[in-house]
Amino acid sequence: MAGAPGQESRRPDGAAEALRRLADGLDPAALGAELHAAIRELYPICRSITGDGLRQSLRILQRLAPLELHEVPTGTPVFDWVVPKEWNLRAARLVAPGGEVVADAARLNLHVVNYSAPFRGKVSRAELDAHLHSLPDQPGLVPYRTSYYREDWGFCLAHEVRARLPEGTYDVLVDTSLAPGALTYGELVVPGVQEDEVLVSTHCCHPSLANDNLAGMVVAATLAKLLGGVAPRYTYRFLFVPGTIGAITWLALNEARASRIAHGLVLACLGDAGRSRRGHAEIDRAVAHVLARSGADHAVRDFTPYGYDERQYCSPGFDLPVGALTRTPHGEYPEYHTSGDDPALVRPDRLVDSLRRCLETFEVLEGNRTWLNLSPKCEPQLGRRGLYGAVGGQSHAVASQLALLWVLNLSDGHHTLLDVAERSAGLLAIQAARSDGQSS
Amino acid sequence: MAGAPGQESRRPDGAAEALRRLADGLDPAALGAELHAAIRELYPICRSITGDGLRQSLRILQRLAPLELHEVPTGTPVFDWVVPKEWNLRAARLVAPGGEVVADAARLNLHVVNYSAPFRGKVSRAELDAHLHSLPDQPGLVPYRTSYYREDWGFCLAHEVRARLPEGTYDVLVDTSLAPGALTYGELVVPGVQEDEVLVSTHCCHPSLANDNLAGMVVAATLAKLLGGVAPRYTYRFLFVPGTIGAITWLALNEARASRIAHGLVLACLGDAGRSRRGHAEIDRAVAHVLARSGADHAVRDFTPYGYDERQYCSPGFDLPVGALTRTPHGEYPEYHTSGDDPALVRPDRLVDSLRRCLETFEVLEGNRTWLNLSPKCEPQLGRRGLYGAVGGQSHAVASQLALLWVLNLSDGHHTLLDVAERSAGLLAIQAARSDGQSS
Amino acid sequence: MAGAPGQESRRPDGAAEALRRLADGLDPAALGAELHAAIRELYPICRSITGDGLRQSLRILQRLAPLELHEVPTGTPVFDWVVPKEWNLRAARLVAPGGEVVADAARLNLHVVNYSAPFRGKVSRAELDAHLHSLPDQPGLVPYRTSYYREDWGFCLAHEVRARLPEGTYDVLVDTSLAPGALTYGELVVPGVQEDEVLVSTHCCHPSLANDNLAGMVVAATLAKLLGGVAPRYTYRFLFVPGTIGAITWLALNEARASRIAHGLVLACLGDAGRSRRGHAEIDRAVAHVLARSGADHAVRDFTPYGYDERQYCSPGFDLPVGALTRTPHGEYPEYHTSGDDPALVRPDRLVDSLRRCLETFEVLEGNRTWLNLSPKCEPQLGRRGLYGAVGGQSHAVASQLALLWVLNLSDGHHTLLDVAERSAGLLAIQAARSDGQSS
């Protein structure tokens, strides 16, 4: 009695149902172990916004999903920016006057300021100090610092180590290269029936930091693999890009494609939810719906231009409906951008939970249609179709009948199923609470 | 200094004022007794969605107001439905092996499942059980059950009686008829100056149930009688229809007329308030306004497609601004759809109160105009017209002057009086609270 | 990287910056003393809606700012009103049977009902009583009462004095004149680049009442003087008018000009905030923004047609975006319209604070532009312009960088700076709170 305006010969919601089955069929233990193993393998590699560490990491992700690697040459203009020189690290070591190695990138690559220019020499304690970074409030942790756009070198170390560095001459080795090369990014497209795209973007430029953002990288790659087994309605585009410059580069080289992005999610740290600049785009509502139904503690936050790469996708020249999904937002857990963000911080079950919420969000997007009730005048007679209880007079309808009534009532060509779900949610919950006391 | 756009020669708010006088002049004791007597007379009759019990009940209502009876033949197609066979009950009795009459429609017509198909014979205790209905949680009450659209027979009885029915052979008599006939409904139109209609619809298909909905039937009939003495602006149409199928039948046979319905109310159980599907239609706001001013405890609920006949009037093919007015909503009082819903549950003063709120709602609708201040530039000088205190400088204006200022300020051709009332309500209340301390 | 649509050759926000400097550079002690001295000088003068007291007061204000005086002849029709006869007081005295002078306008001009008609004679205690006004709840205070539109005479006195007036014959002298003359008002225009006007209106008809409204008069005059030193974008029009009839008179004689009023404020009692009839006009939002940032306790109230002259500016024939700014609203402090409202009630620091909030409001209006980011695709590279920290990876951005990101993100030709401020306010506050714990 109801049909889609612009009907398709194939079962229209096959993909939504397949995604639901995928989400329900996840094996948390096995999948969680697999994702965590990938994180542990990726952790020691020294990634940056360019260079071999980034390439090597993307190649490891290729074992999870067949993403394609792109290389954009140094010097390529991308909007207001230019693709920078490629950075590679061979070694970085700081030796104290007494011979103690107080920082060594081979031990923990956070010890070297990312994108440090090459330097080799002896410096006094005072000269050295301008090149040191530490956290007085978290004296045991090594911070993560970068210097992408000013050529300089530096070391990061625990404040308690820095505090007891003696006077004297220090031996500095920063054996890096900054030279013409390329910016590397990964991309994977799962074609759908429609050309409209769902963008999933994740940054992959952080060195030894696990939650931010090895977690996002392995979840995104696994999502890409799983979607390959579904014939979706939308085309899904997965981007594995260095933060900021990678998103800017992709947008600059794919400007015509951007207008096809119907919905988008930036994945990072993998948990709570944040809105797109538009605030009430379908993707914002779909994520909110999934999180509300998950029963998990969560918060939906307004867009701010100081987040991850949604900053670029939501810049006023694009204003794409791209939100962010994170478990704990950046800067709000003490290990953020420090050596404390190691694989032990990342829990396998949380990775699977994040992945599941993504699949459910895609399910909502895939299944969200505007239906037209072809029998709109009064209710259709559900009873003779076996869709309504034969015995009348009981106090409470069962949830499935209420759902039918809501869908029929609001299928007027103006309400999407997500609209119906939002409007009926509170009342269905009340009804569900009541029907506990239902008589037989 | 103010005039109606499109002025009428007659005093435009005569009907609103007449309704206010009617509401203020009600004699609660006498009217309550009269309404309750009608309920007691109607109570024993076995009503259903068709049949002689329904006809007889409508004829009793004709003594209150001159409603017209319509008969729609069995088999008439009405949208997705068909007018069913007519059902009549002669007798229904269930006799236990020991000879005890455990259920008898002559004693309480709820004992027979409404629309039971004829049956006569002997059945075992086990066979019988599939035809019995009771309430384990309310073991002393007989439930109300129907089987309109599946031909079957059944008995309803108190669970405590059912629980002690012995094994053995039961004698079943269901002497009913299910045969071509008609669906009967009542209709009364009070013509107004305008063709736009106010619809008042009430269901009258329930057998021995007092609050649901003999209360609605007698209040609606009395409203119809009282409105006959007022020359209203709107045309008022009262429908006394069997639930669901009656509303569907009327809409199917009067489809062209439906578009004239400017405001509508479904009356049932007579108390609290519920919104139309549109949510903020004028009728929704008028009812909310009346209840807020009544000082009575009340709640305004959002529309749900699992209510009374507003389900049909608000189906997407019509989407009429028809809300529901009930005292305790269906399913939320323990006697709902049981033998506990008898005349003792219905209090005469509550019937009069409900009737009064309906009259006040009509008063708001009748008087709700959009005025145009013909002296819109600055305030008119109220003082020289005797409408403002001559001595200036006092702290607080009296309420009547504030009301004048609000009406003058918002009479810009865009605000209705209901808009003015809603916007000024909070501030007038604050002002009223303050003026207690006013000096002389 | 950003430019104004419709660029101007002069620095566009010079006026906003000058106003900010003015606000920051106020000397509270010196300015407060100066404003308070003016109030003390004005206090004893017997003002009314016409007459020499009003003229004399406006001339004193001319020493603060060069306002122009206008005289509108008695009998001039102004919309629904007529400019009244001019009233002047020479003396008013009430002598008790024993010779005691119980009321004398020379001692306190509130003692005579403002606009009292002339009368001289002897009256009994009983006859006198109809001409007396007092406050039983505030027995020590003399009320302020007027009789503008009914020719009568009267005296106001403390209730404790009235209560012990003996029987006998009273000697009444009301030596006033009510004769053809003029209504006087003051006006000062500070021309701006644009013809759109900011209206600042204040009533100046109250006799010996300090907060209501000598405070408003001296603050408005000082604002006018200060604005004369700024070359503003908007044209500022200051009106010093007798309440109600003065605003009506100005609107009637300047009807064509009213449409140029882009924003307006009625100043009185000088503190809290009230909205215009429109509710969310730019002036309403600008005042709310300034008060929110001031940290001061304040309330934004909805428009009511029982306020000051915003009643006239917001009448439906004009509906101008004119709000009111008051410190304690009329009628909400016990001294309101009594002899208790004397210069001691008015605190110099509060006058300066009110003046400062007005300057800040003008700053917001002057600086509120809709900018267009000319580099809208992704973020511009702030780092190479020295606008972004060179070391990356830190948890928190500094406020100035966040402000830049917000402005760039929302400068899409649709959002004003006030929109940006409102949208980012909460998030910037959170960010500010967090950055306390920022590491070095």
Summarize the structure.
The structure is a homotrimer of 440-residue chains. With 440 residues, chain A is of the alpha/beta class.
General shape of chain A = elongated
Terminal Cα span of chain A:
31 Å
Largest Cβ-defined interface:
A-B, 34 and 44 residues
Cα Rg of chain A: 26 Å
Widest β-sheet, arrangement of strands of chain A: 2-11-13-12-14-17-15-16
Number of continuous helical runs of chain A: 13
Instruction: Tell how many strands the DSSP assignment of chain A holds.
Output: 19
Task: Give a verbal description of the structure.
Chain A is of the alpha/beta class. Chain A contains 13 helices and 19 strands. In chain A, the strands form five sheets. In chain A, strands 2-11-13-12-14-17-15-16 form an eight-stranded mixed sheet, sandwiched between helices. A four-stranded antiparallel sheet of chain A has the order 6-5-10-7. In chain A, strands 1-18-19 form a three-stranded antiparallel sheet. The radius of gyration of chain A is 26 Å and the shape is elongated. Chains in contact: A-B, A-C, B-C. The B-C interface holds B 1, 373, 375-381, 383-384, 390-397, 402, 405-406, 408-412, 424, 427, 431, 434, 437, 439-440 and C 78-81, 113-114, 133, 135-138, 143-150, 152, 154, 244, 247-248, 251-252, 255, 277, 302, 304-306, 311-312, 314-319, 330-331, 336-337.
Set out the fold topology.
The structure is a homotrimer of 440-residue chains.
Chain A: E1 2-3, H1 14-24, H2 28-42, H3 52-61, E2 68-73, E3 77-78, E4 81-82, E5 86-95, E6 101-104, E7 119-124, H4 125-129, E8 132-133, E9 155-156, H5 159-163, E10 169-179, E11 182-190, E12 197-203, H6 210-227, E13 235-241, H7 245-253, H8 255-258, E14 261-267, E15 273-274, H9 282-294, E16 300-301, H10 310-313, E17 322-325, H11 348-367, E18 370-373, H12 399-410, E19 412-416, H13 417-434
Helix pairs in contact in A: 1-11, 2-6, 2-11, 6-11, 9-11, 12-13
